[in-house]
């Protein structure tokens, strides 16, 4: 189906590089030209806030190792997509300026400088802060020189039996060209000399990704848990890989490649086959970053730069060990005292049976009134998952329709859809196979759904289906067909639902049900879209709907009426939305923005944004929900949904926001904003120059409120007092 049939004048260009496109608004000269913060530097500032948590001694120790790993993993993706996109624009001569009016080559220079600074700080945080704290907790990451003779004898046995058989040394000589270096793989460069001919050769040893990154050392009776990086272990057994050769030098290096995917959907007769072909090509994207240990000799470095066709500016010298994303393994160690306290999500009180000892009935609960869910404080398993599982098993359910953007292949959500189809129900799954870095997994379980009899639709040409909606049609006892609907801010993924903070609405409201059903029909078939009442749908109506409501608050403020805007978002860079907020601020509208990641707004700048406050909260859960709150003369209009304020969300994705009407839900949203924006809550504050300042301790020296910990306590208390 052509997306233009459904969505009118939407941008149809494929997501080559998601946000590298024209600004969403033309500058009329009424606002200063330098009114946006750079989005690339803003993203790096977000990852710097992650690093803040790793450096904070108040963060539980094994959570600090996790934050170090998250920082590393985040930065990998930033290079694979964002830096790769900048380089591609420069290489192809695309001169469209960024949303701050600078050309890509200047942005890349600033990004490179900041990335070098952050990677050095990241390595220092591990070496000088986290590793010593691990040592104090009897969790030791050793190096070969730390081991005594007895340790080394036992480790040699371990190497010979479990590691040596997996290694594949590759020589480089006239008969063996320089090997392909896969993206994000950890490698050893080795220079050896033949003692008979005195000829010096180069070889590469890839560190096997199928083995643990940190090898646990045998118990030495000290009670300490000890590890050694696998690359250090391999480095000290190179004589077994190159017998008879003299080892001259060996160093670690790691390459990052451009791994973005570009499929010309308009030219593809079969999207799945075209995407599979492109995924194979992704493995061979051009290099964009070379990480090396700071002791690498000039001869080896010169060879790598030449063979990998990379520049000196793209080389990052760091102390060993490289690739600290491997620290995720340490986070799995069973030391509860070194982690956040165990959190068991509660069942939403509105989903509990009204009669003692009765079985939960999701449909009966929804019929009593709308249910606002807050994950992971409230259980995904006993709400959304139970909703779909009960729908699959209920003989009165006739049809289930659902969008799927990211989930796990073994997900009970997938199994529920399969069970429903095998039970003879009509089941439609709209699978977004273009979800970045999940493409292969999505293709795999989409085919599994098809084999089970589920009607699978692979989205729309030129648009990603990013909305989170599920619809169940059930025949009630009186013969009436009733729509039960879920609209959420997060993916239908039981695993990430335990660490992603998200909101969801379960409702039997007939208006919402009809509108979601219409939307599914438009996504899977041919239909002419009509306007919605309770929904805002991108790309045609969402931007317009939000701008209209921002303008309404502006007019109210100018007329002396109550006004106010509160936004919770992952990222905000869209120029039209930001400019509307600036104009609202100048009219006197108090605006609170709660952002997790990228923010293009310059808050608190006189004459531009003195009424705008921006806060960011990071912690054990990833703040992922999107909320839009408009005071509307003390009759608040509040929306939740899947859309961030970015070009891709507003112009090139199917996104859905739903307006909340239940009074208790509206009060709950107010409480969340009050807590998040309070000066008593631990958060980062953004200034007009783009600098984020962490506020973690009060003027009296006491720790500020950890918002997520407080919500855990408050949610558990509400469950107990029911």
TrEMBL record:
InterPro entries: PP_kinase, PP_kinase_C_1, PP_kinase_middle, PP_kinase_middle_dom_sf, PPK_C_dom2, PPK_N_dom, PPK_N_dom_sf. Residues 151-330 form the Polyphosphate kinase middle domain. Residues 36-141 form the Polyphosphate kinase N-terminal domain. One of its GO terms (biological process) is polyphosphate biosynthetic process. An intermediate of this reaction is the autophosphorylated ppk in which a phosphate is covalently linked to a histidine residue through a N-P bond. The keyword Phosphoprotein applies. ATP binds at residues 74, 500, 596, 624. Pfam families: PP_kinase, PP_kinase_C, PP_kinase_C_1, PP_kinase_N. Its cofactor is Mg(2+). Keywords: ATP-binding, Kinase, Magnesium, Metal-binding, Nucleotide-binding, Phosphoprotein, Transferase. One of its GO terms (cellular component) is polyphosphate kinase complex. Mg(2+) binds at residues 406, 436. Signal peptide: none annotated. PANTHER family: POLYPHOSPHATE KINASE. Catalyzes the reversible transfer of the terminal phosphate of ATP to form a long-chain polyphosphate (polyP). This is Polyphosphate kinase. It comes from Amnibacterium flavum. The gene is ppk.
């Amino acid at each position: 189906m052509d997306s233009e049939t459904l969505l009118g004048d939407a941008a149809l260009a494929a997501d080559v590089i998601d946000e590298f496109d024209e600004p969403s608004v033309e500058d009329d000269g009424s606002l200063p030209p330098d009114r946006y913060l750079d989005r690339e530097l803003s993203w790096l500032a977000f990852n710097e806030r992650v690093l803040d948590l790793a450096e904070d001694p108040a963060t539980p120790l094994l959570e600090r190792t996790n934050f170090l790993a998250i920082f590393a993993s985040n930065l990998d993706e930033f290079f694979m997509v964002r830096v790769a996109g900048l380089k591609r624009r420069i290489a192809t001569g695309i001169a469209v300026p960024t949303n701050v009016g600078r050309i890509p080559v200047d942005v890349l220079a600033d990004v490179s400088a900041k990335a070098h600074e952050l990677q050095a700080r990241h390595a220092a945080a591990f070496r000088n802060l986290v590793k010593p704290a691990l040592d104090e907790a009897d969790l030791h990451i050793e190096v070969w020189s730390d081991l005594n003779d007895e340790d080394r004898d036992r480790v040699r046995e371990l190497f010979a039996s479990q590691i040596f058989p997996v290694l594949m040394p590759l020589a480089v000589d006239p008969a063996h060209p320089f090997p392909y270096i896969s993206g994000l793989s950890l490698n050893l460069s080795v220079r050896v000399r033949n003692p008979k001919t005195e000829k010096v050769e180069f070889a590469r040893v890839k560190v096997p990704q199928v083995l643990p990154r940190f090898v646990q050392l045998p118990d030495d009776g000290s009670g300490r848990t000890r590890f050694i990086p696998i690359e250090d272990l391999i480095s000290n057994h190179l004589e077994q890989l190159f017998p008879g050769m003299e080892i001259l030098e060996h160093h670690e290096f790691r390459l990052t490649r451009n791994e973005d995917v570009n499929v010309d959907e308009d030219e593809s007769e079969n999207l799945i086959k075209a995407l599979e072909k492109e995924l194979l090509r992704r493995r061979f994207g051009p290099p964009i970053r070379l990480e090396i240990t700071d002791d690498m000799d000039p001869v080896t470095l010169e060879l790598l730069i030449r063979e990998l066709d990379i520049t000196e500016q793209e080389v990052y010298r760091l102390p060993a060990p490289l690739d600290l994303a491997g620290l995720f393994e340490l986070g799995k160690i069973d030391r509860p005292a070194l982690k956040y306290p165990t959190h068991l999500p509660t069942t939403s009180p509105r989903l509990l049976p009204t009669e003692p000892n009765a079985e939960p009935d999701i449909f009966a609960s929804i019929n009593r009134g709308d249910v606002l869910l807050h994950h992971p404080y409230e259980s995904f398993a006993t709400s959304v998952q139970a909703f779909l599982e009960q729908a699959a098993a209920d003989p009165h359910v006739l049809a289930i329709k659902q969008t799927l953007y990211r989930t796990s292949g073994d997900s009970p959500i997938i199994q529920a859809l399969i069970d429903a189809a095998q039970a003879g129900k009509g089941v439609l799954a709209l699978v977004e196979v273009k979800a970045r870095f999940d493409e292969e997994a999505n293709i795999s379980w989409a085919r599994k759904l098809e084999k089970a009899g589920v009607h699978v639709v692979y989205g729309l040409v030129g648009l990603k289906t990013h909305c989170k909606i599920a619809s169940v049609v059930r025949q009630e006892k009186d013969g009436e067909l009733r729509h039960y609907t879920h609209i959420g801010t997060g993916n239908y993924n039981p695993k990430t639902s335990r660490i992603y903070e998200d909101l969801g609405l379960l409702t039997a409201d007939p208006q919402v049900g009809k509108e979601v059903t219409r939307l599914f029909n438009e996504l899977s078939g041919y239909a002419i879209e009509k306007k919605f009442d309770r929904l805002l749908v991108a790309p045609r109506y969402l931007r317009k709907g939000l701008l209209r409501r921002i303008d309404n608050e502006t007019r109210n403020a100018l007329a002396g009426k109550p006004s106010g805007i509160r936004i919770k978002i992952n990222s905000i860079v869209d120029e039209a939305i930001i400019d509307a907020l600036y104009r609202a601020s100048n009219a006197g509208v108090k605006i609170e923005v709660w952002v997790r990641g990228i923010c293009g707004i310059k808050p608190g700048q006189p004459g531009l944004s003195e009424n705008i406050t921006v806060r960011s909260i990071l912690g054990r859960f990833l703040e992922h929900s999107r909320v839009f709150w408009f005071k509307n003369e003390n009759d608040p209009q509040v929306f939740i949904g899947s859309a961030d304020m970015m070009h891709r969300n507003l112009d090139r994705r199917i996104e859905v926001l739903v307006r909340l009407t239940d009074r208790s839900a509206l009060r709950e949203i107010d409480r969340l904003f009050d807590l998040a924006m309070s000066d008593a809550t631990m958060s980062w504050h953004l200034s007009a120059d783009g600098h984020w300042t962490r506020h973690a301790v009060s003027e009296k020296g006491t720790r500020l409120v950890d918002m997520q910990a407080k919500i855990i306590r408050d949610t558990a208390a509400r469950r107990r007092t029911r």
